[in-house]
Amino acid sequence: MKQHTMLAFDLGATSGRGIIGTLNNNRLETYEISRFPNRVINIHGKLYWNLLSIFESMKETLAECVRRKIPVDSIGIDTWGVDFVYLGKDGSLLSMPRAYRDPYTERIPEQYFTHIPREEVYRITGTQIMNFNSVYQLYAARKENYAPHLHADKILFIPDALAYLLTGKCVCEYTIASTAQLLNARSREIEPALLQPAGMGKDVFPGIVFPGEKIGLLSELISRETGFPRVPVISVAGHDTASAIAAVPAQDEKFAYLSSGTWSLMGIELEEPIITKDSYRMNFTNEGGIEGTIRFLKNITGMWILEECLKIWKRNDKPYDYEEIILMAQKEKPFQRFIDPDSPTFACPKDMLKAIAEYCSETGQLPPENGAETVRCIFDSLAMKYNYVLGRLKKFAPFPIEKLHIIGGGAKNPLLNQFTANTTGIPVISGPAEATAIGNLLLQAKALGLVENRHDMRRIIRNGIRMETFMPVETDKWQKAYREFLNITRLEE
Ligand code: LFR
């Protein structure tokens, strides 16, 4: 078999990366070729992503491949969900994309539900109600009379927007579209009625394409500018979480996954959506996966809280690295205080340390006094929240959940992996940490006809990475602390 080399662009809320993957005899070798910052920019109180800077970094990555003589056969792009850009009639970008943490959607869903009731929106889409979903962003933009919204001819989600900048072709990739709360979960098409309150019709979205289809060739202009050949840009699973889940190295279907990064996405893989009164009440989502699968999952606030604390410590001349943080937490006394990571106070506070301290005071607990106490509180609380969501997930799973696969950057935290095994009482298997990029690369390989299906993909991953298993220990102690966590956070079981 000819050796194939692919380039994955994997964009998260804090950084973007170019990853080269080479598939040779069913072995995938990967390495990072570029890494660039991604951040939110505040302009007159509105929060934006700097799409042009991302685009520039992508072009520099292409030029770097040329400099290093890497013979790339295709390109794929995955990013975070829900955000989008508006294009004008002439195809020009009307503005930078608003960032999902922009408070413009605060209290907007409730107003939207005066047009279409909340239950109805969930019944059609099966998507969890979160105020940053594209449907509410569009409605908020309409209410603001946001000029790009009023003049839009087309809307492209972030991976589609970047593919458009690279190829000039407009598509609406299915997995990323499924985060918008605009898709009909059954027909997998945009539901026009849901766009009406935002004053738009279905034709603002290009036709849906599925992972594995080709979007187009790299544009002649960029090819000339960078020296990079005109290879196909492939529609992978444009949503980072979908790409990550495609890369869960599971052997059978009896698993739950936790895709751990800025967000922690916990769920199961299904053949059909589950849209019931209970899934509505517990706000589980049915996002689109590869090969017709459904990602039945829940968003849990993940490393975001820690990332925000790290930023503050860095500003205060305490630039802790990840290993130090883990060591600090390990040495600290357990279960001194708990937070609910998903409390709205942690969504976008000006000062995360203050937000944690206030939460503790309000719930009758002593606020953390130093970095070690803070990180221990974050890790204890995350592990507890994972157990809480897993308990709910078990009620829906059509199979016994026998293990939890933790993938993504957060999988590199052995302490939290062990805590999670202890609190959930099931084995935790960690890795790959690079799941999003690996999923992206193997979906390109599938589009090129090099692998057959997700089972093949997962076998390649299993053979190629080091996985670690964490068996539950001290479960009684953790169960007791879990009761305490439920008491403090007032979460109902
Ligand atoms: C993870 C993620 C989640 C999505 C959140 C916001 O990076 O894509 O799946 O809910 O970001 O887009």
TrEMBL record:
Carbohydrate kinase FGGY C-terminal domain ranges (all copies): 256-447
Carbohydrate kinase FGGY N-terminal domain ranges (all copies): 6-244
Entry-linked InterPro entries: ATPase_NBD, FGGY_C, FGGY_N, Rhamnulokinase
UniProt keyword list: ATP-binding, Disulfide bond, Kinase, Nucleotide-binding, Rhamnose metabolism, Transferase
PANTHER family: L-RHAMNULOKINASE, SUGAR KINASE
Family as reported in the entry's similarity comment: Belongs to the FGGY kinase family.
Protein name: Rhamnulokinase
Organism: Coprobacter tertius
Lineage: Bacteria, Pseudomonadati, Bacteroidota, Bacteroidia, Bacteroidales
